[in-house]
Amino acid sequence: MDPKLLNPLTLAYMGDAVLDQHVRRYIVLKLQSKPNRLHQVSKRYVSAKSQAQTLEKLIDEQWFTDEELDIVKRGRNAKSYTKAKNTDIQTYRKSSGLEAVIGFLYLDHQEDRLEALLDEIIQLVNERE
């Protein structure tokens, strides 16, 4: 299976789970707190607004390869039939673009590049806090 051939929203679905798991591991090890507190902190990293801001910063910094940027654009431009929760459609689409490239890297077994991206996301969100 070639991940590039998958629907970008399928890649975003996978990427959402990968990012969520990475963030959960990070905050559990960092905070060692109760689940409600962990959930509140995790939202800073995985909300559509946070992901959209992070994507914009990564694009500004030219962080992505051409191939990755193509996946981001496909994810961002994909027509979703689900309603964006607590955000506008543009923010939701940007977050889908970021999730799509995460899902792509995961399914393409690009572990080093994936880990670098996930760590950069954590760092960018921490800098904003």
From TrEMBL:
Q: Which cofactor does it need?
A: Mg(2+)
Protein name as catalogued: Mini-ribonuclease 3
Subunit (UniProt): Homodimer.
Which Pfam family, any one, appears in the UniProt record? Ribonuclease_3
Please state every residue range assigned to the domain named RNase III.
2-127
Name the job this protein performs: Involved in correct processing of both the 5' and 3' ends of 23S rRNA precursor. Processes 30S rRNA precursor transcript even in absence of ribonuclease 3 (Rnc); Rnc processes 30S rRNA into smaller rRNA precursors.
What InterPro entries does the annotation carry?
Mini3_fam, RNase_III_dom, RNase_III_sf
Which residues of this protein are catalytic? 16
